[in-house]
Write a structure and sequence with these properties.
single chain, alpha+beta, Alpha-Beta Plaits, 2 domains, 4-stranded antiparallel sheet, 4 strands, 49% helix
């Protein structure tokens, strides 16, 4: 007996193929975006670094200006100190000369004999220039001898002695040099002796 299959035979449906495993290709716009972001970040970091460097440089320049101002002030103070020191030295020198002048005139007046008078006395570098008038050369010699006896005067020398005449009066103009020896400064007062140690 013959059988006829009137139902169409179904074809076996093929199973869907599985997609191949693997990385999908990265889109180009995404890569470009990453590059732009990285470049922007680098630029921002560089700008920050440059800003810090500029700030540090400005601070250094400010410190330099401050140091220059301080240096200028110190120089000014040093100049003022030097000026004040010179003034003090000059005042002390004038004071010492003043004291010496008083002492010199005192010594010269002690030694001067009668009929001898002084017209000019100058003092420089401990050397006295003495000018005066006397009735005779003998009185000039006596005056020089008195000066030589003075402990504060030495190297007494006669420079000149010239006879003058005025209104029938005869006198001698003389010039003498002498070295003035400054008296030794008085020693400072002694301090009271230390107390004796107790036995």
């Amino acid at each position: 007996m013959i059988r006829i299959n009137l139902i169409k035979s179904e074809k076996a449906v093929a199973a869907p193929k599985k997609e191949e495993k693997g990385k999908k290709p990265v889109p180009t716009p995404f890569i470009i975006g990453l590059i732009v972001i990285a470049a922007a970040a680098y630029f921002i970091n560089q700008q920050k670094a440059i800003g810090k460097e500029n700030a540090a440089l400005d601070e250094i320049n400010l410190e330099k200006v401050q140091y220059r101002e301080v240096e200028a002030t110190l120089n000014q103070v040093n100049e003022q100190t030097e000026t004040i020191t010179k003034k003090i030295a000059l005042i002390n020198q004038l004071k010492s000369h003043q004291d010496a002048a008083v002492a010199i005139m005192d010594e010269l007046s002690k030694s001067i004999p009668y009929w001898v008078w002084l017209t000019e006395v100058s003092y420089e570098n401990q050397v006295l220039q003495i000018r005066g008038r006397a009735v005779s050369n003998n009185l000039v010699a006596d005056y020089m001898e008195n000066l030589e006896k003075n402990p504060y005067l030495n190297n007494v020398n006669l420079i000149s002695s010239t006879q003058r005449k005025m209104r029938n009066n005869q006198f001698y103009d003389f010039a003498i040099t002498a070295k003035y020896v400054l008296p030794a400064p008085s020693p400072p007062p002694k301090k009271e002796g230390a107390k004796k140690e107790k036995k």
